[in-house]
Amino acid sequence: LQKLYEVTLQRNSRLFTSAQLADMLGISRRTVNRIIQRLLDHRYAVIEGKDLTQPHGRPARVIRLLF
Questions:
Q1: 4, exposed or middle or buried, with CB in 10 Å at 0-12, 13-18, 19+?
Q2: The pLDDT of residue 40
Q3: What is the DSSP string of the chain?
Q4: CA triplet 44, 51, 16: central angle to 5 degrees?
Q5: pTM to 2 decimals?
Q6: Are 61 and 46 in contact (CB under 8 A)?
Q7: Neighbour-count burial of 36, counting CB atoms closer than 10 A to its CB (0-12 exposed, 13-18 middle, 19+ buried)
Q8: With left for phi above 0 and alpha for psi between -120 and 50, is residue 29 left, alpha or beta?
Q9: Does residue 67 carry a pLDDT above 90?
Q10: Whose CA is closest to 67, among 35, 39, 33?
Q11: I need a surface site. Which of 17, 18, 25, 59 has the fewest CB within 10 A?
């Protein structure tokens, strides 16, 4: 949680995709998705919407961290 909080301060935003968090934290997207699921379960995060700017593939979830 501390690293995630530091990332929000560094970026001055609480909106992220899994890929953005993975790149900023230096961990895999799969690990970030597991962390996000736990945050969603415990209401430390909510799904804000979808990132439709990607040219191909499934739209990425946009997550808002609530701390």
A1: buried
A2: 97
A3: -HHHHHHHHHHT-SEE-HHHHHHHHTS-HHHHHHHHHHHHHTTSEEEEEEE---SSSSPEEEEEE--
A4: 35
A5: 0.84
A6: no
A7: buried
A8: alpha
A9: no
A10: 39
A11: 59
CB count within 10 Å of CB 40 equals 14
pLDDT in tens, 5-60: 999 999 999 999 999 999 999 999 999 999 999 999 999 999 999 988 878 888 89
Sign of CA dihedral 63, 15, 67, 4: positive
The reported pLDDT for the residue numbered 29 is 94
CA distance 59 to 67: 25
